[in-house]
Design brief:
The complex is a heterodimer.
Chain A lengths: L11 H14 L12 H8 L3 H13 L3 E4 L3 E4 L3 H27 L3 H15 L12
Chain B lengths: L3 E12 L2 E12 L3 E5 L6 H9 L6 E6 L2 E2 L4 H7 E4 L11 H9 L7 H10 L13 H14 L4 E5 L7 H15 L5 E5 L3 H7 L2 E6 L2 E7 H7 E7 L5 H5 L4 E7 L2 E7 L2 H10 L3 E7 L2 H8 L6 H7 L3
Parallel strand pairs in B: 3-8, 3-9, 6-7, 7-8
Antiparallel strand pairs in B: 1-2, 1-4, 4-5, 9-10, 11-13, 11-14, 12-13
The chains are: A mainly alpha, B alpha/beta.
């Protein structure tokens, strides 16, 4: 299910976080599903168990999974709010890049806002989205 | 939180006037897999010998599992499992004889685990070791070392002549072995892509000098390649910026390999009128080449006389 690219320059634990998060948000992993054990995933992906453990710890901290002693790590219930937060955090880097690019090119804030409004108006499909529903 | 399994303080080794290892402060924590990197002659083998107590420090000290190396050679030998690059030592023995012979040296030998591994890997007992494939031979030696239950595994070029499938099996086994969090692995190798996958720590030696020690994911997060275009960018000035490890430039462009402080570097470049400032991740290969001062383009000059 997961595929790690060690030479991409992106920390491996972050790649795992991204991929597991995607599996959860896309519904491939459902609340209550058990994540592979650290040992299994490390052996399967041939990556360091510490790295897998770090990814699981971060996922737990962000509330996407929960782990109990001896029971393993499980995808947690109550996704809606997390999903909204997660969706925002995925768009955020693109926005940051956009802002940085606009700065370099000398595009003013108002100009950028106008462009964003225009792009949203052209697309027009996201109007009714409350931003709080789950999967 | 985790236990320190190898602890080196000011560890140095010289042979006559030759400094094989310059003072090294280094720790290996339980649960970690450390890649020791560097060109040939960088001091990797010297370090391995120091860990095993085969050679003694000229300065400083090293302890393994809290015991000073040199004081208790039997305990060190039991704790450290060394898998050499040259796996042909027992060529003429049959697999069964080798397992029996090897196991007899160690009170900690787990013969049930040995039979189990051989069966799992479909390695028969009858043939001589030299008749096995290279993959089977590598697995046999690694398996044998694991069955004497060391706490630290020292691997020298573990996959050097293995096909990708066998290499994957060997590394996967190593990853499993270390996952109980109580053991650790030190790998010396030139295969950077393997280090990149399986290691969480790197120690980089260059002519005996420890030039870099890092957590690999931290290294990935810190090392970046910043590219920018712009006219009259002050190349020599950027070389002095904090974090800038390497600068490449050409007409109208500049590429900086930075080790930390990437945001500062990009904003300074923009202040200097640079456009199209982009930031990319850096592979361990790039880090290696940067640390060894490899000059891209030098090859072309060399080839000019030949091709």
């Amino acid at each position: 299910m997961f595929h790690v690219r060690p030479d991409s320059g992106e920390p491996i634990y972050q790649q795992l976080i991204r991929q597991i998060t995607h599996a959860i948000t896309s519904g491939a992993l459902k609340p209550g599903d058990r994540l592979p054990t650290i040992r299994w995933l490390a052996a399967e992906q041939v990556v360091n168990p510490n790295t897998v453990a770090r990814a699981y710890r971060e996922l737990e901290r962000s509330g996407l999974v929960e782990s109990g002693p001896r029971t393993g790590t499980f995808v947690t219930f109550d996704p809606p709010k997390l999903m909204a937060k997660e969706r925002r955090s995925r768009v955020k880097p693109h926005l940051d890049g956009l802002v940085a690019e606009a700065r370099v090119l000398g595009i003013s804030n108002d100009e950028l806002k106008a462009m964003l409004d225009e792009a949203l108006a052209t697309d027009g499909s996201g109007e009714s989205d409350s931003g709080e529903e789950g999967s | 939180m985790s236990r320190t399994l190898i602890d080196a303080t000011g560890l140095a080794k010289s042979y006559g006037d030759c400094l094989a290892l310059k003072p090294l402060d280094w720790r290996v924590e339980a649960g970690s897999i450390t890649g020791v990197l560097g060109p040939n002659g960088a001091g990797k083998t010297t370090l391995a010998k120091l860990i095993m107590g085969i050679t003694h420090p000229s300065e400083g000290s090293i302890s393994v599992l809290g015991r000073k190396v040199g004081g208790d050679p039997v305990a060190i030998r039991a704790a450290v499992g060394f898998v050499p690059e040259d796996k042909l030592l027992y060529d003429e023995m049959t697999v069964g004889d080798f397992i029996h012979f090897y196991g007899s040296f160690f009170s900690t030998w787990d013969s049930a685990a040995a039979s189990n591994l051989l069966e799992k890997w479909s390695i028969p007992l009858k043939p001589r070791i030299k008749e096995l494939s290279k993959g089977s031979r590598a697995k046999l030696v690694l398996g044998a070392v694991l069955c004497r239950k060391p706490t630290i595994l020292l691997l020298d070029e573990p996959t050097i002549d293995l096909d990708p499938t066998s290499a994957e099996e060997v590394l996967s086994l190593v990853a499993q072995w270390v996952s109980n969090g109580e053991r650790s692995v030190v790998i010396t190798t030139h295969r950077l892509e393997e280090v990149e996958r399986i290691c969480d720590q790197v120690l980089f030696l260059l002519a005996g000098e420890p030039v870099l020690q890092a957590d690999l994911d931290d290294l990935r997060a810190g090392w970046k390649l910043v590219r920018a275009t712009g006219s009259a960018l002050p190349v020599s000035e950027t070389q002095r910026w904090e974090g800038v490890r390497r600068v490449e430039s050409g007409p109208g462009w500049i590429a900086l390999t930075v080790d930390g402080g990437v945001n500062q570097v990009t904003s300074r470049l923009r202040d200097l009128g640079a456009t199209d400032v982009t930031v990319e991740g850096v592979s361990l290969r790039e880090v290696y080449l940067t640390l060894t001062d490899y000059e891209r383009g030098r090859l072309d000059e060399v080839l000019e006389g030949v091709v």
